[in-house]
Amino acid sequence: MKVEPFDTQRHVTFTRRAAFTVGGTFLLFGGVASRLYDLQVRQFEEYQSKADDNRFKQRIVVPLRGEILDRYGELIASNRQNFRVLLVPEQTDDVAASIAKLEAYLPLTDAQRNLLLREVAEKKNQAFVPIEIMDNLEWDTFAAINFHGPSLPGIVSEVGETRYYPDGEVVAPVVGHVGSADASDLRSAGGDRLLYLQPGFKLGKLGLEESFDEKLRGEAGSKTVEINAAGRVIEENDNRGHGAAQGETLALTIDADLQRHAHEVLAADYKEYPEGTEGPGAVAASAVVMDVVTGDVIVMASTPAFDPNVFARRVDRQTLRELKNSPLDPLLCKPLAGAYPPGSTFKLLTAIAAQEAGIDPRTRFTCTGSFRFGSRSHACWKREGHGRVNMAQSIKNSCDVYYYNLAQRVDIDHIADVARRFGLGQTYDLGIGGESEGIVPDRDWKRMYYRTQPENQTWFPGETLSVAIGQGAVTSTPLQLAVMTARLATGLAVEPRLVRSIGADVPSIPAFALATPQPEYLDIVREGMDAVVNQWGTAARSSLMPDYRMAGKTGTSQVRSLVINPETGKPFKNHELPWHKRDHALFVAYAPYENPRYACSVVVEHGGSGSKSAAPRARDIMRAVLEKDPVNPDRHEFWRPGQEPLRTRVAQAGSGRGGSR
Amino acid sequence: MTTILLPEKQLGIRGRLLRINVLLLVLLWAIGGVGVMTLYSVAEGSWTPYASQHLVRFAFATVILLAVAVTPLRFWLEAAYPLYFAGLVLLLLVPVIGDVNNGAKRWISLGGFQLQPSELMKIALVMALARYYHGLEYKKVSTFLGVIPPLVLIAVPVGLVFLQPDLGTAILTGVAGIMVVLLAGISWRWIVMGVVAGFFGIIGAIQTGLLKAYQIERVTAFLDPTYDPLGANFHPNQSKIAIGSGGVDGKGFMEGTQSQLGFLPEKHTDFIFTIFGEEFGLIGTLGLLMLYFTTFFVGTRISLAAKSHFGRLLALGISLTLVMYVLVNTGMVMGLAPVVGVPLPLVSYGGTVMLAMMGGFGLVMSVWIHRHQDTLRTPGWR
Question: What ipTM, to 2 d.p.?
Answer without folding.
Answer: 0.87
